[in-house]
């Protein structure tokens, strides 16, 4: 009986230290992807990212075309030039292909890094706007729709946040 009282006492102290949430807590959700794609700042950022991506693709396609042309030329020379000269040309072509592959990997890495930096800038600019909206409307928690299973459509504040962002960041 004494052990039971001690366990009960510890149990009560443990659970009394927790702050239980009330049913009146305001929870809302927003679609971050929609905001990025439709806000003025998001559109400008996506345009910069897409521009860099298109430039990279253009450079890589030109290099790829050049490599293919060299490969065709080399195949045509195979029976005309000596075996040693052919092997030397193959080594040069392989080196060029390797350099192309490395450059492609570097471009992809740089694009991903650029994309992360640019999107972080956007989130730093829209974060205070969302916080201000939350404070003004007594909202305690905002979830992204990707992390939700189901919610009442009245709790979707995406359009209001989009308007606030576009009005604040002209």
Structure description:
With 170 residues, the protein is mainly alpha-helical. The chain has one domain: Protein Binding, DinI Protein, Chain A (2-Layer Sandwich), CATH 3.30.910. 74% of the residues lie in helices and 5% in strands. The protein contains 5 helices and 2 strands. The protein has helices spanning 2-16, 32-38, 40-77, 83-136, 158-168, and strands spanning 27-30, 141-144. A two-stranded parallel sheet has the order 1-2. Helix 2 packs across helix 3 (40-77), helix 3 runs antiparallel to helix 4 (83-136) and helix 4 (83-136) packs across helix 5. The model has no long low-confidence stretch (mean pLDDT 85).
